[in-house]
Design goal:
2 copies of one chain form a homodimer. With about 110 residues, chain A is mainly alpha-helical. The first copy, chain A, has 5 helices and 2 strands. Chain A is elongated, with a radius of gyration of 20 Å. Chain A binds a DNA duplex (30 and 30 nucleotides) through α4.
Chain lengths: ~110, ~110
DNA sequence: GTGATGCGCAACCAATGGTTGCATTTCTGG
DNA sequence: CCAGAAATGCAACCATTGGTTGCGCATCAC
Protein backbone atom coordinates (compact mmCIF):
# COMPACT_ATOMS: atom_id res chain seq x y z
CA UNK A 1 0.00 0.00 0.00
CA UNK A 2 2.80 2.37 -0.90
CA UNK A 3 1.88 5.94 -1.70
CA UNK A 4 3.15 5.65 -5.27
CA UNK A 5 3.25 9.37 -5.90
CA UNK A 6 4.75 10.64 -9.08
CA UNK A 7 8.31 11.04 -7.84
CA UNK A 8 9.20 13.20 -10.84
CA UNK A 9 6.67 15.83 -9.95
CA UNK A 10 7.41 15.66 -6.24
CA UNK A 11 11.15 16.01 -6.61
CA UNK A 12 10.60 18.94 -8.95
CA UNK A 13 8.92 20.85 -6.14
CA UNK A 14 11.23 19.24 -3.60
CA UNK A 15 14.06 21.65 -4.32
CA UNK A 16 13.88 24.82 -2.22
CA UNK A 17 15.14 27.05 -5.04
CA UNK A 18 12.53 25.69 -7.41
CA UNK A 19 9.80 26.24 -4.81
CA UNK A 20 10.87 29.87 -4.49
CA UNK A 21 10.93 30.18 -8.26
CA UNK A 22 7.34 28.96 -8.38
CA UNK A 23 6.48 31.48 -5.65
CA UNK A 24 7.99 34.33 -7.67
CA UNK A 25 6.42 33.17 -10.92
CA UNK A 26 3.01 33.00 -9.24
CA UNK A 27 3.44 36.36 -7.54
CA UNK A 28 4.56 38.16 -10.70
CA UNK A 29 2.49 36.17 -13.16
CA UNK A 30 5.55 34.89 -15.01
CA UNK A 31 9.15 35.91 -15.62
CA UNK A 32 12.37 35.43 -17.57
CA UNK A 33 15.57 33.69 -16.43
CA UNK A 34 17.18 37.08 -15.87
CA UNK A 35 14.25 38.57 -13.96
CA UNK A 36 14.03 35.47 -11.78
CA UNK A 37 17.72 35.43 -10.99
CA UNK A 38 17.33 39.02 -9.87
CA UNK A 39 14.90 37.95 -7.15
CA UNK A 40 16.75 34.81 -6.11
CA UNK A 41 20.16 34.15 -4.58
CA UNK A 42 21.39 32.15 -7.58
CA UNK A 43 22.81 32.96 -10.98
CA UNK A 44 20.82 33.17 -14.18
CA UNK A 45 22.38 29.94 -15.41
CA UNK A 46 21.23 28.07 -12.33
CA UNK A 47 17.74 29.48 -12.83
CA UNK A 48 17.81 28.23 -16.41
CA UNK A 49 18.63 24.71 -15.28
CA UNK A 50 15.78 24.74 -12.78
CA UNK A 51 13.39 26.07 -15.40
CA UNK A 52 14.45 23.13 -17.53
CA UNK A 53 13.46 20.73 -14.75
CA UNK A 54 10.15 22.48 -14.14
CA UNK A 55 9.46 22.50 -17.86
CA UNK A 56 10.21 18.79 -18.25
CA UNK A 57 7.57 17.90 -15.63
CA UNK A 58 5.14 20.40 -17.14
CA UNK A 59 4.99 22.80 -14.20
CA UNK A 60 5.87 25.78 -16.40
CA UNK A 61 5.54 26.62 -20.07
CA UNK A 62 7.64 29.04 -22.06
CA UNK A 63 6.89 31.68 -24.69
CA UNK A 64 9.87 33.00 -26.65
CA UNK A 65 9.48 36.71 -27.31
CA UNK A 66 12.32 38.36 -29.15
CA UNK A 67 15.47 37.90 -27.18
CA UNK A 68 13.52 36.96 -24.06
CA UNK A 69 11.96 33.69 -22.97
CA UNK A 70 8.95 34.28 -20.77
CA UNK A 71 8.03 31.46 -18.39
CA UNK A 72 4.65 31.00 -16.72
CA UNK A 73 3.28 28.48 -14.26
CA UNK A 74 1.02 25.75 -15.64
CA UNK A 75 -1.91 25.98 -13.25
CA UNK A 76 -3.32 22.53 -13.85
CA UNK A 77 -0.01 20.81 -13.27
CA UNK A 78 0.72 22.82 -10.14
CA UNK A 79 -2.72 21.85 -8.87
CA UNK A 80 -1.75 18.22 -9.44
CA UNK A 81 1.43 18.75 -7.44
CA UNK A 82 -0.50 20.34 -4.59
CA UNK A 83 -2.89 17.39 -4.63
CA UNK A 84 0.04 14.99 -4.27
CA UNK A 85 1.47 16.93 -1.37
CA UNK A 86 -1.80 16.81 0.50
CA UNK A 87 -2.29 13.15 -0.40
CA UNK A 88 0.99 12.16 1.26
CA UNK A 89 0.26 14.44 4.19
CA UNK A 90 -3.18 12.93 4.59
CA UNK A 91 -1.80 9.40 4.57
CA UNK A 92 0.78 10.18 7.22
CA UNK A 93 -1.90 11.91 9.24
CA UNK A 94 -4.09 8.83 9.00
CA UNK A 95 -1.25 6.57 10.14
CA UNK A 96 -0.52 8.88 13.06
CA UNK A 97 -4.19 8.79 14.03
CA UNK A 98 -4.20 5.00 13.92
CA UNK A 99 -1.08 4.83 16.07
CA UNK A 100 -2.64 7.23 18.52
CA UNK A 101 -5.77 5.13 18.75
CA UNK A 102 -3.75 1.97 19.36
CA UNK A 103 -1.73 3.73 22.04
CA UNK A 104 -4.92 4.87 23.72
CA UNK A 105 -6.36 1.36 23.56
CA UNK A 106 -3.27 -0.06 25.24
CA UNK A 107 -3.45 2.64 27.86
CA UNK A 108 -7.11 1.86 28.56
CA UNK A 109 -6.41 -1.86 28.70
CA UNK A 110 -3.67 -1.33 31.24
CA UNK A 111 -5.92 0.77 33.44
CA UNK A 112 -8.65 -1.80 33.95
CA UNK B 1 5.98 37.37 1.76
CA UNK B 2 7.91 34.17 1.16
CA UNK B 3 6.62 31.00 2.75
CA UNK B 4 9.76 30.56 4.80
CA UNK B 5 9.32 26.87 5.38
CA UNK B 6 11.99 25.02 7.25
CA UNK B 7 14.03 23.83 4.29
CA UNK B 8 15.82 21.27 6.46
CA UNK B 9 12.61 19.51 7.35
CA UNK B 10 11.17 19.76 3.88
CA UNK B 11 14.22 18.40 2.11
CA UNK B 12 14.30 15.55 4.63
CA UNK B 13 10.91 14.38 3.40
CA UNK B 14 11.74 15.52 -0.13
CA UNK B 15 13.70 12.39 -0.90
CA UNK B 16 11.55 9.54 -2.25
CA UNK B 17 13.52 6.85 -0.43
CA UNK B 18 13.16 8.67 2.87
CA UNK B 19 9.43 9.08 2.29
CA UNK B 20 9.13 5.33 1.75
CA UNK B 21 11.20 4.73 4.85
CA UNK B 22 8.76 6.83 6.85
CA UNK B 23 5.90 4.86 5.30
CA UNK B 24 7.47 1.57 6.39
CA UNK B 25 8.35 2.85 9.83
CA UNK B 26 4.77 4.04 10.33
CA UNK B 27 3.29 0.83 8.98
CA UNK B 28 5.46 -1.44 11.15
CA UNK B 29 5.73 0.83 14.14
CA UNK B 30 9.52 1.13 13.84
CA UNK B 31 12.41 -0.86 12.45
CA UNK B 32 16.15 -1.42 12.24
CA UNK B 33 18.49 -0.51 9.36
CA UNK B 34 18.56 -4.16 8.31
CA UNK B 35 14.79 -4.65 8.47
CA UNK B 36 14.21 -1.44 6.53
CA UNK B 37 16.69 -2.33 3.81
CA UNK B 38 14.82 -5.62 3.43
CA UNK B 39 11.67 -3.73 2.44
CA UNK B 40 13.36 -1.13 0.28
CA UNK B 41 15.39 -1.29 -2.94
CA UNK B 42 18.55 0.06 -1.31
CA UNK B 43 21.34 -1.35 0.80
CA UNK B 44 21.52 -1.24 4.57
CA UNK B 45 24.28 1.36 4.41
CA UNK B 46 22.14 3.68 2.31
CA UNK B 47 19.31 3.24 4.79
CA UNK B 48 21.69 4.14 7.60
CA UNK B 49 22.63 7.39 5.88
CA UNK B 50 18.98 8.30 5.39
CA UNK B 51 18.21 7.48 9.01
CA UNK B 52 21.00 9.86 9.93
CA UNK B 53 19.31 12.64 7.96
CA UNK B 54 15.91 11.88 9.46
CA UNK B 55 17.43 11.75 12.91
CA UNK B 56 19.20 15.09 12.50
CA UNK B 57 15.92 16.84 11.74
CA UNK B 58 14.20 14.97 14.55
CA UNK B 59 11.79 12.93 12.42
CA UNK B 60 12.92 9.68 14.03
CA UNK B 61 14.49 8.69 17.31
CA UNK B 62 16.62 5.66 17.99
CA UNK B 63 16.81 3.12 20.81
CA UNK B 64 19.91 0.93 20.90
CA UNK B 65 19.01 -2.59 22.00
CA UNK B 66 21.86 -5.04 22.07
CA UNK B 67 23.38 -5.26 18.63
CA UNK B 68 20.29 -3.68 17.06
CA UNK B 69 19.31 -0.05 16.74
CA UNK B 70 15.55 0.35 16.68
CA UNK B 71 14.26 3.50 14.95
CA UNK B 72 10.79 4.97 15.42
CA UNK B 73 8.98 7.94 13.94
CA UNK B 74 8.67 11.04 16.08
CA UNK B 75 4.98 11.78 15.74
CA UNK B 76 5.12 15.44 16.74
CA UNK B 77 7.87 16.24 14.27
CA UNK B 78 6.15 14.35 11.46
CA UNK B 79 3.00 16.31 12.23
CA UNK B 80 5.06 19.50 11.84
CA UNK B 81 6.30 18.30 8.47
CA UNK B 82 2.77 17.52 7.33
CA UNK B 83 1.72 21.00 8.44
CA UNK B 84 4.45 22.54 6.30
CA UNK B 85 3.46 20.51 3.27
CA UNK B 86 -0.12 21.69 3.54
CA UNK B 87 0.99 25.26 4.26
CA UNK B 88 2.89 25.46 0.98
CA UNK B 89 0.09 23.71 -0.84
CA UNK B 90 -2.43 26.12 0.62
CA UNK B 91 -0.39 29.13 -0.43
CA UNK B 92 -0.04 27.91 -3.99
CA UNK B 93 -3.73 27.12 -4.03
CA UNK B 94 -4.50 30.65 -2.85
CA UNK B 95 -2.31 32.17 -5.58
CA UNK B 96 -3.94 29.98 -8.20
CA UNK B 97 -7.34 31.11 -6.98
CA UNK B 98 -6.29 34.73 -7.22
CA UNK B 99 -4.97 34.22 -10.74
CA UNK B 100 -8.18 32.51 -11.70
CA UNK B 101 -10.25 35.43 -10.35
CA UNK B 102 -8.14 37.92 -12.29
CA UNK B 103 -8.48 35.86 -15.45
CA UNK B 104 -12.22 35.74 -14.99
CA UNK B 105 -12.36 39.49 -14.40
CA UNK B 106 -10.48 40.13 -17.64
CA UNK B 107 -12.79 37.74 -19.43
CA UNK B 108 -15.86 39.53 -18.08
CA UNK B 109 -14.41 42.91 -18.96
CA UNK B 110 -13.77 41.80 -22.51
CA UNK B 111 -17.30 40.52 -22.92
CA UNK B 112 -19.06 43.77 -22.16
C1' DG C 1 34.54 -20.43 21.80
C1' DT C 2 33.14 -20.03 17.13
C1' DG C 3 30.21 -18.73 13.71
C1' DA C 4 26.42 -15.89 12.21
C1' DT C 5 24.08 -11.43 12.57
C1' DG C 6 23.78 -6.34 12.97
C1' DC C 7 26.22 -2.26 12.64
C1' DG C 8 29.54 1.61 11.54
C1' DC C 9 33.18 3.51 8.77
C1' DA C 10 35.77 4.52 4.52
C1' DA C 11 36.51 4.62 -0.31
C1' DC C 12 34.51 5.17 -4.36
C1' DC C 13 30.96 6.45 -8.25
C1' DA C 14 26.99 9.05 -10.61
C1' DA C 15 23.72 12.62 -10.53
C1' DT C 16 22.68 17.29 -9.52
C1' DG C 17 22.70 22.09 -7.90
C1' DG C 18 25.79 25.63 -8.21
C1' DT C 19 29.47 28.56 -10.31
C1' DT C 20 32.41 31.10 -14.14
C1' DG C 21 33.51 32.06 -18.89
C1' DC C 22 32.41 32.64 -23.60
C1' DA C 23 29.75 32.67 -28.01
C1' DT C 24 25.29 34.02 -30.05
C1' DT C 25 21.09 36.43 -30.96
C1' DT C 26 18.26 40.49 -30.56
C1' DC C 27 17.35 45.29 -29.36
C1' DT C 28 18.41 50.18 -29.37
C1' DG C 29 20.67 54.83 -29.76
C1' DG C 30 23.48 57.85 -32.61
C1' DC D 1 23.36 51.39 -40.59
C1' DC D 2 26.38 50.05 -37.08
C1' DA D 3 28.17 49.52 -32.38
C1' DG D 4 27.29 48.39 -27.96
C1' DA D 5 24.23 46.60 -24.46
C1' DA D 6 21.04 43.09 -22.98
C1' DA D 7 19.13 38.17 -22.79
C1' DT D 8 20.14 33.73 -23.69
C1' DG D 9 22.55 29.21 -24.48
C1' DC D 10 26.38 26.13 -23.94
C1' DA D 11 30.49 24.04 -21.80
C1' DA D 12 33.70 23.21 -18.19
C1' DC D 13 34.23 22.76 -13.67
C1' DC D 14 33.33 22.10 -8.38
C1' DA D 15 30.76 20.45 -4.05
C1' DT D 16 27.15 17.89 -2.16
C1' DT D 17 24.51 13.86 -1.93
C1' DG D 18 22.38 9.35 -2.75
C1' DG D 19 24.04 5.09 -3.90
C1' DT D 20 27.32 1.17 -3.97
C1' DT D 21 31.12 -2.32 -2.15
C1' DG D 22 34.40 -3.85 1.24
C1' DC D 23 36.03 -4.34 5.78
C1' DG D 24 36.32 -4.44 10.85
C1' DC D 25 33.99 -4.69 15.25
C1' DA D 26 30.49 -5.91 18.64
C1' DT D 27 26.94 -9.02 20.13
C1' DC D 28 24.02 -12.92 20.17
C1' DA D 29 23.34 -18.10 19.90
C1' DC D 30 24.73 -22.83 19.56
Amino acid sequence: MSVTVDDELWSAVGDPTRRRMLDVLLADGGGTPTSLSGQLPVTRQAVTKHLGVLHRVGLVHVTPAGRERRYEVDEAQLARAVAQLSAVGAMWDARLQRIKRIAEAIQREREE
